[in-house]
Amino acid sequence: MATPADEVKAHTFRKYKDGDHEVTRWSEQIFDGDRTHKCPTYVHQTPPCQGSCPSGEDIRGWLNIVRGIEKPADGMDWQEYAFRRSTQANPFPSVMGRVCPAPCQDGCNRNQVEDFVGINAVEQFIGDSALDAGLEFTPGADTGKKVAIIGGGPCGLSAAYQLRLKGHACTIFDDHEDLGGMMMYGIPGYRTPRDVLHGEMNRIINMGVETKLKTRVGEDITLEQLEKDFDAVLFAIGAQSGRDLPVDNFTEASNCLSGVAFLAAFNEGRLKGVTGKVVVIGGGDTSIDVASVARRIGKITDVHENDRPEHIILGQTAHDVAGVANREGAEVALLSRHPVSSMTAAQHEIDDATREGVEIIDSIDPIAVIMGDNGRAKALRVRKLKWEGKNMTPIDDSEYDIDADLIVSAIGQTGNLKGMEEFGNDRGLIDADKNFQVPNKPGFFVAGDIVQPHLLTTVIGQASVAVESIDHYLKNEETGKRPKVDVHHFNLLNKLRETHHEPAHFAPEGDAKVRGIDRGQHGTADADFAIH
């Protein structure tokens, strides 16, 4: 139901590859051979933390700034310098410092010594400091090109940020009342404080990003019109439709719903409580969020039919705050087909949910919804599983029923492609090539969960790669092979510019017919050879 932990890397679209942190030695060929065949180049080998970061952040770079190893130029404090370095790849350091499961920490070298560096905590500090200081982003010089971005979630906003850095105008089209996507409507507010989220989103909008909210592409405006009005179109619509549990009676029961719908009702302020035992099926971060929210908002003991959570989640009624003020903690069970050790949710999130009273039942397989009166489910029938490595076998005669007043499926998500069906595939997503272009659709690009639902940090990294492709397209350049970013070349010129020590541009003097060494170049012959 959730992607097993040992298969996560295959779905990340990481910018780096395993092993890129290993040092490449050329000393024998360059220095010990009888002749050199490779010009020496100075590189920053990719550290394993960066190699594990789907966003492609320069983690070592901004950690060195925080540690005082790398100093900012005069007039800039180290907090701003670290913020500027961090946001070259990720414009949401404050949000991501709070919610990212931090695959970078799994790759940290310090795991081989004592424990990983708390990269998330440092990133959150950098982001919070920037918000407190009111730091803003500066857009690049205007290119005259315009890009339409369909979707205002983390991917769409990250793409808008990268496009504005390059000077391209962009307009975000989103069918919600507010921007943020799953950051706003999926992740509970206690994990992403709304003032923090709005602060980081507004900083991007302040770069000159135009927004069209409550506007659905395919209904309120056609794709043909976007293609006519803009130079390129990026799909960043996310995957905000939950997948139904594939068992009998799930779609027939009114109180069987998706995790996405449950969290949206809570984050929009409509859902104030539940009315009985909640059973959540999943194993990833969404299932943990659903279970934790259900446990926290509590159970309404004096139940009116209109208070049933399915009516609230489906938007048919709304909870009255006074009516649900007197409530107690709800009974919540989270079911996972995989063992707890293989659940894809972050371990600290699993631990927190357990401490809050969520019961986690692992190695369990739902097989049917048991119907009660009035078209509602009264229980979920399950059976136990036996795992041997990656192989799973149902245990004979192990079936039993778990009573439930609300059954929530958090086993995955798909996109809502209504009005854009021509771009969809058979999985309810959109295909992308290696450069995040839509195959056989020139001028159309796609990134984020609508390609492959995954982590926030993954969609931020995909947005960066997609914008590189869009930039090439707008310049009539071949996108060709995806840029090599498995090692970071040490760019001395950029570092000199940061510290206001950029060297003067070389301008030859004298008669062009005179030998190169007489025109200010250090040459070895009459042919203008220069020593590099």
Structural write-up:
InterPro entries: DPD_II, FAD/NAD-bd_sf, FAD/NAD-binding_dom, Glutamate_Synthase, Helical_ferredxn. With 532 residues, the protein is α/β, with parallel strands linked by helices. It has 3 domains: 129 residues, Alpha-helical ferredoxin (Fumarate Reductase Iron-sulfur Protein, Chain B, domain 2), CATH 1.10.1060; 132 residues, FAD/NAD(P)-binding domain (3-Layer(bba) Sandwich), CATH 3.50.50.60; 170 residues, FAD/NAD(P)-binding domain. Helix content is 28%, strand content 15%. The protein is built from 17 helices and 20 strands. The chain has a 5-stranded parallel beta sheet, with helices on both faces. Helix 3 packs antiparallel against helix 4. The chain starts with 26 loop residues before the first helix and ends in a 34-residue tail after the last helix.
Largest sheet: 5 strands, parallel
Distance between the termini: 56 Å
**CATH topology tier name of the largest domain:** FAD/NAD(P)-binding domain
Mean pLDDT comes to: 84
CATH class of the largest domain: Alpha Beta
Number of strands: 20
Pfam families: Fer4_20, Pyr_redox_2
Domain Dihydroprymidine dehydrogenase: 45-132
GO molecular function: iron-sulfur cluster binding; oxidoreductase activity
InterPro entries: DPD_II, FAD/NAD-bd_sf, FAD/NAD-binding_dom, Glutamate_Synthase, Helical_ferredxn
